[in-house]
Design a protein that fits this description.
The protein contains nine helices and ten strands. By secondary structure, it is an alpha/beta fold. The longest helix is centred in the C-terminal third of the chain and has 25 residues.
Length: 296
């Protein structure tokens, strides 16, 4: 059986050891600081530090027993549910670059999945085209990450139409309120009503939309002559001279991407546009930092 190639090192191998440790620490640290756990659990007592502690944290009974001012220490209770909704439709099997969009998306999901599990949170996933083709409920442990990677590497899982609205509506029936929903897709071929599904999802969950596109999704290369274009809705195709449609195509792509971004942002969710010839690591860290600022 043919498999999709995924680099599980997510680009860290090109960094020296010190830089690699710093980047992975930032990646994990920004995630944990932005997406807090469900509460705090008492851990132990320690001596009060006037330079670092608020006086209101002093526990009078513990201080009396110890004969010095003591404060309580708490550890964060995490166990948050994070759910990936990943596009495996026809348009994800495209590339003008060394990586297919689906390979890039799989590496992104792998990286985020490991970060989430290291933070002691749960992950689940649904892979979709015109319907849900693979599903796993949110749970803890590296075994769910292994199943996700195994599913994403199966070449026969890719292809078919695209129905983001249907996929989101299916997820709404399952996810607990307060979960984090991460949608990874190229958002090509959107059907009527998808905006309302994003709006509803955003009212119940934290939502992050991550758009993965190839450079050719955005710009027609110069001097390629005639090309075949297809309507993603009807499937009808037409042969045209690329230079004649280039400015209109690129203007329409920009307009569409701006609309997708605004749908997420206007509903209080986050959105990130990625391109397959760029590293996603720094951009994900920046997204987490910007979210922290927005919700501070």
């Amino acid at each position: 059986m043919k498999k999709i190639k995924i680099d599980l090192k997510i680009g860290f191998a090109s960094l020296d050891i010190g830089a690699r440790e710093d980047v992975t620490t930032q990646y994990l640290g920004t995630y944990k600081s932005v997406f807090k756990g469900r509460g705090l659990e008492f851990d132990s007592y320690r001596k009060y530090s006037p330079d670092n502690d608020d006086a209101s944290m002093i526990d009078s009974l513990a201080s009396a027993r110890a004969g010095s001012r003591m404060v309580r220490q708490f550890i964060e209770e995490r166990n948050m549910d994070v759910f990936f909704l990943i596009d495996v439709s026809n348009t994800m099997i495209l590339s003008s670059q060394p990586k297919l969009k689906c390979e890039y998306a799989a590496e992104l999901a792998s990286s985020l999945g490991l970060t989430i599990l290291k933070s002691d949170d749960n992950i689940g996933y649904a892979l979709f085209n015109e319907k849900i083709v693979e599903f796993s409920p949110s749970q803890k442990g590296l075994n769910v990450h292994s199943r996700l990677i195994n599913a994403l590497t199966q070449a026969n899982i890719y292809g078919g139409g695209y129905n983001l609205k249907g996929a989101i509506d299916s997820v709404l029936e399952y996810l607990k309120e307060g979960s984090l929903l991460i949608i990874i897709s190229d958002f090509i071929g959107l059907q009527k009503g998808w905006e309302e599904s994003i709006k509803l999802a955003s009212s119940k969950y934290s939502v992050i939309g991550i758009m993965v596109r190839d450079p050719i999704d955005r710009k027609i290369p110069e001097g390629i002559g005639q090309i075949s274009i297809a309507d993603p809705m009807s499937g009808q195709s037409l042969i045209v001279e690329s230079s004649s449609i280039k400015p209109f195509f690129e203007a329409e792509v920009k307009k569409t991407e701006n609309h997708i971004n605004s749908v997420f942002m206007d509903n209080g969710s986050d959105f990130l546009a990625l391109q397959t010839n760029e590293s996603f690591i720094g951009k994900i860290i920046e997204l987490f930092k910007m979210r922290e600022i927005r919700w501070r």
